[in-house]
Amino acid sequence: MTSNQHFSKYIILGAGPGGLQMGYFMAQAGREYLILEKSPNAGSAFAVKPRHGKLISINKKYNFFEEQEFNWRHDWNSLLSDDESMRFTRYSDELFPDATALYQYLRDFAAHFSLNIAYQVTVTHIARDADGLFVVETSDGQQYRCQVLLNGLGTAGPRIPEDIEGIEHALGYENHPLDVEFYRNKRVAIIGQGNSAFETADYLSSVAAYVHIIAKAPLKFAWDTHFVGDLRAVNNNVLDLYQLKSLHAVLNPRLKKISRLANGTLLTNHEYDFPHGASPGTLSLSREYDVIIRCTGFNWLHTELFAEDIRPASWYRGKFPALSPVWESSNVPDLFFVGGAMQGNDRKAASGFIHGFRYNIRTLHKILEERYEGSAYPAETLTPFDWQSFVDWMYQRFSVSAGLFQLFGVLCDTLVISEDLKSATRRLELPFEHARSLDYGSQHVLFLTLKFGFEKFAESAISFMGPSDPSDTQCASFLHPVIYHLHQGQWSEFHFGDSLLARWDRPHESGGAVMSYHYAFQQWAQQRLGLTLDLPAPMEGGAYRKWTAQEIAQWQADHAAPTPEYPCHKAM
Asked: CA-CA distances (angstroms) from residue 454 to 96, 413, 458, 462, 479?
């Protein structure tokens, strides 16, 4: 190679939290890797984002329980390492810290572990040569070749609505002025319905004459969806102010056009539909604003960097990379994504945030070790296989594991049991969709993960203020363990009850769950696996008392009031 050509087996693009986390695991394994970073420092995105300086990832330091693994569930900003001194919880006592603290932490993490980072290197083009190696070209004329490319570049630019005429008159979330004097006593509209829109509204609400969020209905609240990327309570003060008629508002018109008037004022043209009106129809309105800000999200794929023949496929109108269950590009072999882009195949759990993708990256590193280094995915052989020892371990694992907790339904533990039930193999934190696609022959397989169950209910999640029905764990609502059984193509599943503190290894009075499911679980396992178990007694008496027929009839009589009829319907 010439002086301007370099080779590393693994190249990681970007020294954000995703790139740093993968770099840490590469360094620990002694692999040949290089991180390319365009800025002078690691974690530089957090020097400017969130724009108003406040993180929405929690920093909960005090959790009563002593297990460090359990406490990782509530530390959303730390990167995984073997050094307890490199925990973000040492950088701030705030539940929602300033972004500057995270910026400092990421710089310190990179320095503390002496990660191999080439700073101020801007990637301009990515291609593949005749040998199948990736060729990464940079603005200073250098070429970096690698066998495996790990893309951790983060967001690729704002998503700008194409269906709003005159959208160019709106300022962007990424560049709107932060000096509040610019907005004092001005009329402000914000286009968007996510955390960036509401974060911006909250920042301006004390100085603007009024702030109107123009959102597509319905809003998605994290307390309802349990998806950390949906609207968070820490950002929704403007909803309170709207409902208390304090000039600020959240509106859901169909925004058609923005025009700039001769006096500099911006005029919106928008529509409301009334399909349930006395005379169904559409209402067309206009409103004047002094400032309009676009907060409509970001893309996660830098398509412009890639040669056409290796341009990664995308989905959701180009927002996310299309990924395999192991975070590999669906159409470009050996190209993987790390960091927030891992949410390309997870829109339910936490893959878009540090507290989620740090576990994805740990798993991905083990998969890379298996594929490219000949090092098998870590497994524990249980010989002889003892069911009760496994059950004790499983209760503890569900109660403490941070990876399964944060990436519910995304990662799973697997237990592969020989057909004669005499031995078993246990693997931790495999991608669930990947694990279920493997061929297990005639062996029994248990997949252990966690899930929410609110999709089974008509009520809003915010109306659930206590435990789910302990007599029917199939209807558990909050996060709870789910065990899937696979044998010769036949699937079955069992749900535990939910637990207020997500502990299933201790009695209720000590912070655990109502243990009504234990007998049913053992019975289910006996039937599915063909085990002969000394089953515990089913729960009779104790905390749960079954109603008599008379009590059931009385409750039905007391709650038999007819559903009220309303004379009006809300606008749609």
From this structure: 27, 23, 8, 10, 9
